[in-house]
């Protein structure tokens, strides 16, 4: 170690010589160019013998300086050559021929050294040594269960990805809910050099369910105890993180600390920064046993291979059984048991500097962990209050957290150049599909959108659904963007059944939606609404992708394919469930049509019956939907017949027909080539007809379109000629695809289009 420091001192001295000797020489020359405090020109004219300022002595001085400068330049050239040779030999001399990227902070093994380290900072170069290979994979384990924790994990992962320069392997111990959400998220995120493995948390419940736990994390808060048994046996080390962690530095720096472990040290932990384990928070406060202030388990470095050899499973179980005889339950979940084990076996722990886990709960000593923003490494929101915690610098911490919360996750799809990555079939297929497109095609952007993979976060809010016993349940399916949020409460009041919504939002908008929903009594009282966030990417609104996402994640056998601007009639949910039975939808290919109307009034007294609706229709308060701009879209519904109909009646498909229908959940998806405005529903209805669905109009059902400002996409359609040309091209290609797929029967679509 001493030899390394000496070598670095020589290296530093040589570097300083190269930098400062020329600088000092030029300063001397510049100072010499002043005479009596006035600048003296060094131009060739004034250096001639006939110049009045020219003297023999000044000429000699100048020549002497020029000689000295040439000598200094030659010395610098030699030094630079020596430095370059030393740099090229350095990595090979230290550890093979691999380039290093990070150095490890000087770790501490006791609290006195820790306090000294906080004061001194990380400036000791001699205390650093290369520890992490450029392409070394860093392993991270996280226990995650439920909808809220899944959202928290995303923010944590964003903060890690933002700083990282190494491949990452996340080991997620997740329940069924979190696995569904996060598997879809990472699959659609497609971040290079990131691998995800899931471990079933529900299977681990029996390992820890015998431990009574009062902590709000519940049974999942105990699962870090069984990681040696859960994670692969060939995994030697792992960083374990709580979901309420935010990284302010590269996680490789923390990974490097493993190289500081000595002897039997197998746990890397930061001292607890509250007085909890001192037992003086209130009268009769009796915490679990701990060494001094104890340790916080929000950030743990685990040497798995050594822990297994030490029989960690047996160690913590015996300790927990012994302490539970008197303590009866844990108050801080796994943290209590970790501390009890360390109390008996202090040699197991390597104490990390406290900036690796700055704990922002009330009444902590977290402010002693940093002097400046640059000292911060990991922030831990370990109070139930989370962002509302009391801390002198909480505003800064909150802003840092919100930065990652609202950061565009698409920007984190960065390649790690120089590091080999595992073959990703989805990514390879995507690249192949994109390579087959002609970038000179005027409709290239339209075609490309069909293959764009949008990052998707399913069930952004808590979701509960109890299946109907009669198997007739219907889910309302719709999609929306930020400018239609105001429709959500009204729809929930009109439709009491399950709802599946796909929301097209940016990361920042998703947080605005979350705050809006959490502040709404109507939305918070409804747990049978699935909110699925599809994150913005590209220049078009992917309307049919959104519909497909909402359709795919319904829990009922039937679905009502609606749009967010429509309010269903009161009682439509129950009426459709009865119609499903009456028309035997389970055993027939039917699409039940709900007639669509519209109003131009923003304030509408919503009709409570068909009779009231017909009266408003006659008075001009309501109109059949889009009768004045797109009559063909709903004309086949035959509104004249509907006025007097008392039983369902069948209608035939016609060109440009686009009704709103109730179908079985196994109906075909929407065609993704249609984005923005135009033909997105028409194409779907055409495919239903090609698959021989029977269109049946419901006589006592209706929905009303509420007015709103024109969307950005319809504005583009109306103002951009190329947009309209590309839409026409896509229509023709779709019809050709239909003919190839459905054969002779699909020829009618070409004929109908030509006649319309």
From TrEMBL:
CDD domains xrefs: GT8_LARGE_C (cd06431)
| Gene3D superfamilies noted in UniProt | Spore Coat Polysaccharide Biosynthesis Protein SpsA, Chain A (3.90.550.10)
Q: Which reaction does it catalyse?
A: 3-O-{(1->[3)-alpha-D-Xyl-(1->3)-beta-D-GlcA-(1->](n)-4)-beta-D-Xyl-(1->4)-Rib-ol-P-Rib-ol-P-3-beta-D-GalNAc-(1->3)-beta-D-GlcNAc-(1->4)-O-6-P-alpha-D-Man}-L-Thr-[protein] + UDP-alpha-D-glucuronate = 3-O-{beta-D-GlcA-(1->[3)-alpha-D-Xyl-(1->3)-beta-D-GlcA-(1->](n)-4)-beta-D-Xyl-(1->4)-Rib-ol-P-Rib-ol-P-3-beta-D-GalNAc-(1->3)-beta-D-GlcNAc-(1->4)-O-6-P-alpha-D-Man}-L-Thr-[protein] + UDP + H(+); 3-O-{beta-D-GlcA-(1->[3)-alpha-D-Xyl-(1->3)-beta-D-GlcA-(1->](n)-4)-beta-D-Xyl-(1->4)-Rib-ol-P-Rib-ol-P-3-beta-D-GalNAc-(1->3)-beta-D-GlcNAc-(1->4)-O-6-P-alpha-D-Man}-L-Thr-[protein] + UDP-alpha-D-xylose = 3-O-{(1->[3)-alpha-D-Xyl-(1->3)-beta-D-GlcA-(1->](n+1)-4)-beta-D-Xyl-(1->4)-Rib-ol-P-Rib-ol-P-3-beta-D-GalNAc-(1->3)-beta-D-GlcNAc-(1->4)-O-6-P-alpha-D-Man}-L-Thr-[protein] + UDP + H(+); 3-O-[beta-D-GlcA-(1->3)-beta-D-Xyl-(1->4)-Rib-ol-P-Rib-ol-P-3-beta-D-GalNAc-(1->3)-beta-D-GlcNAc-(1->4)-(O-6-P-alpha-D-Man)]-Thr-[protein] + UDP-alpha-D-xylose = 3-O-[alpha-D-Xyl-(1->3)-beta-D-GlcA-(1->4)-beta-D-Xyl-(1->4)-Rib-ol-P-Rib-ol-P-3-beta-D-GalNAc-(1->3)-beta-D-GlcNAc-(1->4)-(O-6-P-alpha-D-Man)]-Thr-[protein] + UDP + H(+)
Q: Its membrane topology, per UniProt? A: Single-pass type II membrane protein
Which cellular compartments is it found in?
A: Golgi apparatus membrane
The record ties this protein, via Pfam families, to: Glyco_transf_49, Glyco_transf_8
Q: Where is the composition biased (Polar residues)?
A: 44-58
Instruction: List, in alphabetical order, the GO biological process terms annotated in this UniProt record.
Output: protein O-linked glycosylation via mannose
What molecular function terms (GO) are annotated for this protein?
A: glucuronosyltransferase activity; xylosyltransferase activity
Region feature (Disordered): 42-63, 83-110
- Grouped into one coarse class, the protein's main location is Golgi
Q: Where is the chain membrane-spanning?
A: 12-31
What are the UniProt keywords, alphabetically?
Answer: Glycoprotein, Glycosyltransferase, Golgi apparatus, Membrane, Multifunctional enzyme, Signal-anchor, Transferase, Transmembrane, Transmembrane helix
Superkingdom of the source species? Eukaryota
Q: In which pathway does it act?
A: Protein modification; protein glycosylation
Q: Its GO CC terms?
A: Golgi membrane
Q: Which family does it belong to?
A: In the N-terminal section; belongs to the glycosyltransferase 8 family.
Write down what this protein is called: LARG1 glucuronyltransferase
Q: Which source organism does the UniProt entry give?
A: Oriolus oriolus (Eurasian golden oriole)
């Amino acid at each position: 170690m001493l030899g390394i420091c000496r070598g670095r001192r020589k290296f530093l001295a040589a570097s300083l010589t190269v930098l400062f000797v020329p600088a000092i020489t030029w300063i001397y020359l510049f100072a010499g160019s002043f005479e009596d405090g006035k600048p003296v020109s060094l131009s060739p004219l004034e250096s001639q013998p006939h110049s009045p300022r020219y003297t023999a002595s000044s000429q000699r001085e100048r020549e002497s300086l020029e000689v000295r400068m040439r000598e200094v330049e030659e010395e610098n050239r030699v030094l630079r050559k020596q430095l370059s040779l030393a740099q090229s030999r350095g990595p090979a001399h230290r550890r093979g021929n691999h380039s290093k990227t990070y150095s490890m902070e000087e770790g501490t093994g006791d609290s006195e050294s820790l306090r000294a380290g906080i004061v001194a900072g990380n400036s000791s170069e001699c205390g650093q040594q290369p520890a992490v290979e450029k392409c070394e994979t860093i392993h991270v384990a996280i226990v995650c269960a439920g909808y809220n924790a899944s959202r928290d994990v995303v923010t944590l992962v964003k903060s890690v990805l933002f700083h990282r320069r190494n491949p990452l392997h996340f080991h997620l111990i997740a329940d069924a809910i979190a696995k569904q959400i996060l598997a879809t998220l990472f699959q659609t995120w497609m971040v290079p050099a990131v691998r995800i493995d899931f471990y079933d948390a529900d299977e681990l419940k029996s390992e820890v369910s015998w431990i009574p736990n009062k902590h709000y994390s519940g049974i999942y808060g105990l699962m870090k105890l069984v990681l040696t048994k859960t994670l692969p046996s060939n995994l030697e080390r792992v960083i374990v993180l709580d979901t309420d962690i935010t990284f302010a530095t590269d996680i490789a720096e923390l990974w490097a600390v493993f190289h500081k472990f000595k002897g039997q040290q197998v746990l890397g932990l930061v001292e607890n920064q509250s007085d909890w384990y001192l037992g003086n928070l209130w009268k009769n406060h009796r915490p679990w046993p701990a060494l001094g202030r104890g340790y916080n388990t929000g950030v743990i470095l685990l040497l798995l291979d050594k822990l297994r050899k030490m029989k960690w499973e047996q160690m913590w179980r015996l300790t927990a059984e012994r302490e539970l005889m008197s303590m009866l339950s844990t108050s801080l979940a796994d943290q209590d048991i970790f501390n009890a084990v360390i109390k008996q076996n202090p040699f197991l722990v390597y104490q990390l500097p406290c900036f690796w886990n700055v704990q922002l709960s009330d009444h902590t000593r977290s402010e002693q962990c940093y002097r400046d923003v640059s000292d911060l490494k990991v922030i831990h929101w370990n109070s139930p209050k989370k962002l509302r915690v009391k801390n002198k610098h909480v505003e800064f911490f909150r802003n840092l957290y919100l930065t990652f919360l609202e950061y565009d996750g698409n920007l984190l799809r960065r390649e790690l150049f120089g590091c080999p990555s595992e073959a990703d079939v989805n990514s390879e297929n995507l690249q192949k599909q994109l390579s087959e497109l002609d970038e000179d095609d005027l409709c290239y952007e339209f075609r490309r959108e069909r293959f764009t993979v949008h990052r998707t976060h399913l069930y952004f809010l808590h979701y509960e659904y109890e299946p109907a016993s009669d198997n007739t349940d219907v889910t309302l399916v719709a999609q929306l963007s930020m400018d239609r949020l105001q429709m959500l409460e009204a729809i929930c009041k009109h439709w009491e059944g399950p709802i599946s919504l796909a929301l097209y939002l940016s990361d920042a908008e998703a947080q605005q939606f979350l705050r809006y929903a959490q502040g709404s009594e109507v939305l918070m009282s409804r747990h049978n609404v699935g909110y699925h966030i599809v994150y913005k990417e590209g220049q078009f609104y992917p309307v049919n992708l959104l519909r497909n996402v909402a359709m795919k994640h319904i829990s009922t056998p039937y679905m009502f394919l609606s749009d967010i601007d429509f309010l269903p009639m009161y009682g439509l949910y129950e009426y459709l469930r009865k119609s499903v039975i009456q028309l035997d939808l389970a055993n027939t290919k039917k699409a039940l049509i709900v007639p669509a109307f519209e109003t131009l009034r923003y304030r509408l007294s919503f009709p409570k019956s068909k009779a009231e609706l017909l009266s408003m229709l006659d008075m001009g308060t309501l109109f059949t939907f889009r009768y004045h701009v797109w009559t063909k879209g709903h004309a086949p519904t035959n509104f004249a017949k509907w006025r007097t109909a008392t039983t369902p009646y069948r209608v035939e498909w016609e060109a440009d027909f686009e009704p709103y229908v109730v179908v079985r959940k196994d109906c075909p998806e929407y065609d993704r080539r249609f984005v923005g405005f135009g033909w997105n529903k028409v194409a779907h209805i055409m495919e239903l007809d090609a698959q021989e669905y029977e269109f049946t109009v419901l006589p006592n059902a209706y929905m009303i379109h509420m007015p709103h400002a024109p969307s950005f996409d319809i504005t583009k359609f109306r103002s951009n000629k190329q947009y309209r040309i590309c839409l026409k091209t896509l229509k023709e290609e779709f019809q050709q695809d239909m003919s190839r797929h459905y054969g002779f029967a699909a020829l009618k679509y070409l004929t109908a289009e030509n006649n319309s």
